[in-house]
Every structure is written in structure tokens, then in C-alpha cells.
Design a protein that fits this description.
Elements: H1 2-17, H2 19-25, H3 34-41, H4 43-55, E1 59-63, E2 74-77, H5 84-91, E3 97-101, H6 110-116, E4 120-122, H7 127-143, E5 147-149, H8 170-173, E6 179-185, E7 202-207, H9 213-216, H10 221-233
Parallel strand pairs: 1-7, 2-5, 2-6, 3-4, 3-5
Antiparallel strand pairs: 6-7
Helix pairs in contact: 1-4, 4-5
Length: about 240
């Protein structure tokens, strides 16, 4: 219980302290390159993520970082728990935003940082809005930002991977960026497994080899989804 209280204090305390930085970063000149802007904007969120993950006592092993290509990419990851986002922010050495459910937009401070990263908020219940969100995400990828999607749509909490939703893969087909499959194994142990309490656990993050646009442009979105899911599944214990 004490670890959980300490973890939430770190999480929300750091966010409140970050408000002046958030306000300042919103005023960055538009003349800056995407790469330069992202490096500056992501510095504090990355530090926040490292602090939050560390508060659980987690031991994190990261494999395959040598596979990370230069330039914008679409990261596709399985989704085991709430700590997946801070784990990726802390341990993937590349600025990245997320495709997030629209409910997160109601969270104070967090949503403001997500808009700045930038992230895309999607309402899966509203098909028209979801289609627009995919186009917004594709435009961000074309502009040079990297994004993460969790195509299961929900947390598995240590259970088997759910079938990937194919619609989110249009982010790649509309932008022609490399797809990097990521396997997260063990993140549910940090929170969900112990009744939503912060708890130590071993987590393995595996960065798979990228799938280049020329490798997926000749196959259907469904085939692409199955290909990526199989690559992620192979690294789960």
C-alpha cells in the first residue's frame, strides 16, 4: 500500500510541478523542425515516465533497440496494462505519441501534455470521428512524428492477445512509414495483477525488426494486422 501511495504521489506531484514547463513549451516557435521540437517537448514526459516506472520497483529488460530505424515510425504493441505507456516512453529512445481513447482527454494536465507530444484521441464508438482520427494520425506521421498504437483496444492483463483491430493499421498505409512491432511481457504485474496496486515485477520489452512500406503495400490491411500480431506473439513467454 505504501508503494502505491508513493507511486501516485510521484505521478501526480510531478505533473503539477510540470505545469510551468508545459506552458512554456506551448510557446515554442513554429519555425522549429519536428525533430528538434520533439526532442525538447519529450524530455520532461520521458523523465516523468522513468520516475513512475521506478516507483513500482520494476526490473525492465529491453531487447532489439538496434532495430529502431531513423525517422518517423508507427509502433504497434500488445497492451497488457496501464504501465505500458510509461514503460515505452521511458525505455524507447525515440520521441513518441500515442493513439488514445477519447476518455483520457478529460484528465487534467495529462491530456494537455498528450496534445503537446502530440497524441491522437479516438472515439471508437463514433465511426466518423474514428476515421478522422486515423487521418490526423497519418498526417502526424507524414510530418515526422512517431506514434504508438495498441490495436487490441483494451488491456489483456496478462491474458492472451486479443485479435488486432485492422482499422488502426491504416495509419501506416496512409503514411507509408515503417511499422515497428513491440512486445511487452509482464507489465500487468506492476499494477493489475495485485488488485490495482503498484508492485515490483519483471518486464521485458522487445523491439522487433521494422516492416518497411514496400513490404506491406502489396498485402491487405487484414493480412498486415495478422503479420504484426504474429511477430509480437512470438516474443511472449
Amino acid at each position: 500500500m505504501l508503494r502505491t501511495l508513493y507511486g501516485f504521489m510521484i505521478m501526480w506531484g510531478y505533473l503539477f510541478v510540470s505545469i510551468p514547463t508545459l506552458v512554456r513549451l506551448k510557446k515554442l516557435p513554429s519555425s522549429m523542425s519536428v525533430a528538434e521540437r520533439d526532442e525538447i517537448v519529450h524530455k520532461m514526459p520521458k523523465h516523468w515516465a522513468m520516475k513512475v516506472v521506478k516507483s513500482t520497483g520494476a526490473k525492465v529488460e529491453v531487447n532489439g533497440l538496434e532495430h529502431l530505424p531513423k525517422g518517423p515510425v508507427l509502433f504497434v504493441s500488445n497492451h497488457q496494462g496501464n504501465f505500458d505507456i510509461p514503460l515505452l516512453m521511458a525505455h524507447i529512445p525515440k520521441p513518441l505519441g500515442f493513439i488514445s481513447k477519447i476518455e483520457v482527454k478529460k484528465l487534467p494536465i495529462i491530456s494537455s501534455w498528450m496534445e503537446l507530444l502530440p497524441c491522437v484521441f479516438m472515439d471508437r464508438k463514433d465511426r466518423r470521428q474514428a476515421v478522422k482520427s486515423i487521418q490526423v494520425g497519418a498526417d502526424l506521421l507524414k510530418a515526422g512524428h512517431s506514434l504508438v498504437i495498441f490495436p487490441e483496444g483494451t488491456r489483456s492483463k496478462g491474458g492472451p492477445i486479443s485479435e488486432f483491430k485492422t482499422g488502426s493499421f491504416k495509419l501506416a498505409t496512409k503514411s507509408s512509414v515503417p511499422i515497428v512491432p513491440i512486445t511487452i511481457d509482464g507489465s500487468y504485474k506492476l499494477f493489475e495483477e495485485k488488485g490495482n496496486r503498484f508492485y515490483p515485477g519483471n518486464v521485458t520489452i522487445t523491439v522487433n525488426k521494422p516492416i518497411q512500406s514496400e513490404d506491406y503495400e502489396q498485402i491487405s490491411v487484414k493480412e498486415l494486422s495478422e503479420l504484426v500480431q504474429n511477430k509480437i506473439q512470438e516474443n511472449l513467454k
